[in-house]
Amino acid sequence: MNLNCFLLILFVCFIGQSSEEQRQAYEVKIGAIFSFGTTNGKVARIAMEAAVQDVNSDTTLLDGRKLALTLHDSNYSGFLGIIGALQFMETDTVAVIGPQSSVMAHVLSHLANELHVPLLSFTALDPTLSPLQYPYFIQTAPSDLFLMTAVADMISYFQYREVIAIFSDDDQGRNSIAALGDKLVERRCKISYKAILPPELMSSRDLIVAELLKVKSIESRVIVLHTLSITGLKVFEVAQELGMMTSEYVWIATSWLSGVLDSTSVSTKVASSIQGALTLRPHTPDSQKKRAFVSRWNKLSNSSVGLNAYGLYAYDTVWMIAYAVKEFLDQGGKISYSNDSNLDSFAGETMNLAALSIFDGGKKLLSNILKTNMTGVSGPIAFKPDRSMFRPSFDILNVVGKGWLRQIGYWCNYSGLSVVPPESLYAKPANRSSATQRLDQVIWPGKTKIRPRGWVFPDNGRPLRIGVPRRVGFRAFVSEKEGSGVVQGYCIDVFLAALKCLSYPVPHQFIIFGDGHKNPSYTQLVNMITAHEFDAAVGDITIVTNRTKILDFSQPYIESGLVVVVHVKKMRSIAWAFLRPFTPLAWGVIAAFCLVVGTVVWILEHKFNDEFRGPPKKQVVTILWFSFSTIFGAPRENTVSTLGRIVLLIWLFVILIITSSYTASLTSFLTVQQLASSIQGIESLVTSNDAIGYQVGSFAENYLFEEVNIAKSRLVPLGSPKEYADALEQGRVAAVVDERPYVDQFLSTYCGFQKVGPEFTKSGWGFAFPRDSPLAIDMSTAILQLSENGELEKIHKKWLNRKVCGGQNSEADSEQLQLKSFWGLFLICGVTCCFALIVYFCFMLRQFKRHFPELTQRSTSTRTRISHSIRLKKFLSFVDEKAEISANRLKRKRMEMENLSTS
């Protein structure tokens, strides 16, 4: 059955026929549905009546017509609210203000949609009242979506991560808290518990006590209270009686509390119960209009109730309707009604359905309301396309004194949190960065200015049960003093130092885990946290993916990662050890270049230098001697040619680099240790079939098996550093895979072993806590503080710094020098030799032409072959000839030529 028809049947069944005579044609009828016994209802009634009087005092505003306001008291009843709405629809009402609650707004909006009568509310602010579903419903105050955004920003500003929500079990309560949960998630916070209270009139003291006792047993101490005023004040009274208004707690009440304190005076008991709470109030900027209305309020209300923000919105809502009706009339619209065809089937029945009619101009009036652009007593009023208010903002207030509200800041959707009014920020660019967020100091419950921690330890402060592994090896990290039950070590000292950095005490007791015969399983240790047998775990616990899925870890306090350790041995002294610095190819190239350089220098010096002349056997000896003597310094033979000196200079530079590298490499080969196996890193282990050792209890076993796909049959469990050394020396394992901190300690104690290859995982050690534990966050901050002030390094030096065995610092042995290490030098030397030879032979060819011009002239084709042979022999003879002989021959030839010319 259609919902509207159902509502009509209810109306007729309980009320019967109802009709009213038509009012005078000059009256524009509007209605208001409220529970006028509530604070907001009282304030709204006075404000709306004052607004109607002000509108009617201007006879030109509505073209001589008058606003006629009809009030209907729903008296906390949803049913009576439906009846009131139906009565308004019978009397040709153009708009209805209300209802007060979102529960009724969801119902009456269907009626408004059917009969095209705009429904305006400044208190039904459920964020799920969508304009798509309810086009004729308009919220004339900021939606609770913005209210909850402001609350979420406050929680994030004070660095809280978990909150408890206490709310009434109605549409506005549930949907607003759902919106708060969404906004908190955006800020990496969350609602850890929802305490649901019955709607206002059904919320008994016993139910509140029962729910608050549950809240008191939860770790979180940040409470958001979103109820109606009567229930909310009861919650505060009960909370004080239960000891929940102390300095441990943070209370954030939504805008209901500011509305109550602005409009009514509370008892001393109530005032004391709300001390230190934070609340919000819709922000209404100061203006002349607002000041004038505030000054009239005592007279309008006869001092019966104080003015709050919702009174300002009520006053402006009436004016919004008046301006929209004026625009409607100016556009030629007529206030007329027509029958609803959906109700024709009920004609002639006893129910007076004919009185219900559709407002013909409802759609146009709705459009005019949404186009509102005015400045009222609550400030500028305009709507966005989604019908939300432009730039919604809230005052953030702190309850101090006897219910007195102290302003500590503002929240605006445009700029976030600030200590200056939002309207002064609109001229500046929007800036919601964390650096610009600011609030004044808060006086918290318990009259303290120290920000509450926001959470407590579980089970009412019971000392934390902290699991500590009982290690067999590597006891410098964590160990038990023999038989004393006292734990000590690097990890323990870091944990205790971090606790000292916290601003609150952490009662705790260490519980040793393990049988003392072998290292315990760290996977089992962390699983005991999820099983609630331990509240935390402290020790050399590696942060790995599987563990982070079930636990929260602190910031790592030491870096870690898996590395490979192998056995090393001293190189045996052999007769040919001096040849090891260079590879055979490098030795061969060096020898070849010695001969090449010697030959090139001999060619360049042979014609001019007597030391490079003589019988052929002597010349060969000279070349060999000259070639290899350059290795040990400048040769005995002098060089006289420029080209020869250039080649020799370059070669001596090359020899200097080669001999220096040889000396360094030979020294390294004679002193460093050499690997006893071919393992060079994790890649070598994967491709081999050798046995691999790992530390019992660590995650290395699962990593090697699951991630690297090494068969379990190859994995050998080892417990202590001595077992590491024995297994490696005896060859039972080719290598040990363990975390770097352990390996560093092992190498500092046992010589003859070495890390090979890089770390193939990157991780760290941290303290383990249950999921969403706030202590994990605080401990992370404390560890960072220890790192910055140098305390972490001091603890490291105390427990872990030891003298490292010689040769352990190098990751891998020195290797033989390859030819590629010197190819640049050889290239330079080779190019120099080639260049010198080219220049030399060009010079020789030029000299040959001067000495034997007859051999360089063109010859006939028949004698070309003989001429070439003669030229080549003559050229080689000329090159081999001593320079002085060539010069004398040339001199004689010139003299003969001169004699012939004179004769």
UniProtKB/TrEMBL annotation:
Its main location: membrane. The chain crosses the membrane at residues 585-604, 646-670, 822-843. The keyword Signal applies. It is found in: Membrane. One of its GO terms (molecular function) is ligand-gated monoatomic ion channel activity. Keywords: Disulfide bond, Glycoprotein, Ion channel, Ion transport, Ligand-gated ion channel, Membrane, Receptor, Signal, Transmembrane, Transmembrane helix, Transport. Residues 1-20 form the signal peptide. InterPro entries: ANF_lig-bd_rcpt, GABAb_receptor_plant_PBP1, Glu/Gly-bd, Ionotropic_Glu_rcpt, Iontro_rcpt_C, Iontropic_Glu_rcpt_pln, Peripla_BP_I, Solute-binding_3/MltF_N. Residues 465-802 form the Ionotropic glutamate receptor C-terminal domain. Residues 463-803 form the Solute-binding protein family 3/N-terminal domain. Pfam families: ANF_receptor (PF01094), Lig_chan (PF00060), Lig_chan-Glu_bd (PF10613). SMART domains: PBPb, PBPe. It comes from the Eukaryota. The keyword Nucleus does not apply. CDD domains: GluR_Plant, PBP1_GABAb_receptor_plant. GO terms for biological process: cellular response to oxygen-containing compound; response to wounding; signal transduction. It is a multi-pass membrane protein. Disulfide bonds join C751-C805. GO terms for cellular component: plasma membrane. Belongs to the glutamate-gated ion channel (TC 1.A.10.1) family. Glutamate-gated receptor that probably acts as non-selective cation channel. This is Glutamate receptor. It comes from Nicotiana tabacum. The gene is LOC107789586.
